[in-house]
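Interim report, section 4.2 (structural modelling).
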Amino acid sequence: MSAKYKLIVDEIERDILDGKYNSIGKLPTEEELVATYGVSRTTVRKAIGILSSKGYIYQVQGSGIFIRESILKGYISLETLKGFTRDFPNREIESKVINIEVIQADEKLARKMKCDIGTNVYYVKRLRIIDGNTFSMEYSYYNKDIIPYLNEEIAKSSIYSYILDDLKLNIGFADKLIYADKMDEESAKYLGLAMDDPALVIDNTVFLNNGNIFEVSKVIHNYKHAKLLKLATF
Amino acid sequence: MSAKYKLIVDEIERDILDGKYNSIGKLPTEEELVATYGVSRTTVRKAIGILSSKGYIYQVQGSGIFIRESILKGYISLETLKGFTRDFPNREIESKVINIEVIQADEKLARKMKCDIGTNVYYVKRLRIIDGNTFSMEYSYYNKDIIPYLNEEIAKSSIYSYILDDLKLNIGFADKLIYADKMDEESAKYLGLAMDDPALVIDNTVFLNNGNIFEVSKVIHNYKHAKLLKLATF
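Predicted structure of the assembly:
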């Protein structure tokens, strides 16, 4: 169960990403938000505070609540913990499942996932295509003790929607380690690039609310198409 | 002038990055924070909410307020809007100023900086070295109408400390566009890499509180040493 201000934050966030405010570039006033959502001014202010610290908006005294321009440009945001499918309802997302199998965690994987050696883990290889361009190769591991079932159909649509809506798990947070490297042979092949082309790599460790790791993944991005946006606040 | 909870957020943030809680991996309890900072429980809760949404901590009911483990590992965080020097007091940061000059903004730069063509702009080229390793080449532009003076001495220590402490400007937020590319010849030379080695690139646009752009920069990172951490929350 979420606090009321969190629901408002989610709703405004979705509206911003959906492009609801693209033409005007501003949020409604505090008064209008109070009226629209039927909540107190305190709740609206709390929501606005969170949205500011998440980097979506900024307030200029006397002028209103502005939406950060780069969001309006539709770059893929690094905040996309909810998965491409949820965060980019207006983009054409295609996922090709290259492989899905259950493996046993070896020592290295067990250390990364903080699970016992030998734990059953789903290993999913997917190629993501956004708006017709190869975008990334994902090599993901899901702890089967937490995600008891996965199949190609789920992996082809949205694993995160399944985890949230069907398994009703509380995804909490993620560590993303971002770096550049040379393309490996397999990723280059699927992304249509040459070996030793540059790769934008993100190593993800994703946690439930309670601090347990359910996913570890390596995502290799196509340097020709993947530009990720990070909104920082001071 | 900042609200009281923001001061508490800054203080706890600095303590976390400084490693004050590294041995225990947790923050003090709400009660202890109330006593330490001499503020109300509401203020402490607000600060904890912001620190959670910034990704520094997570709460587990009945167990306490945990610090995200990857922070404890000392990766360079993508949240480092305050500059390396402020954010990493425990690391050895060296800046070599390759060039500093005043130029006039051409059409392309003026568009990026949202200033008039011909505006005087400081162009600063710096090599950053962290803990003895070449880390990044920075190509930065500062609008001289906002940053009226810069010199090599300032650029060699910390431009951000100068902007904050001496110019007393209110830095607001930054857009960071992150991607991989092939190394250019100049950056490769200074970083000690080969041309066509992969580069982790960040294009920064940095705003004052009022939404005015004072800095635009391109930072080319050494792929052998630069791993950046993004803490995402759901």
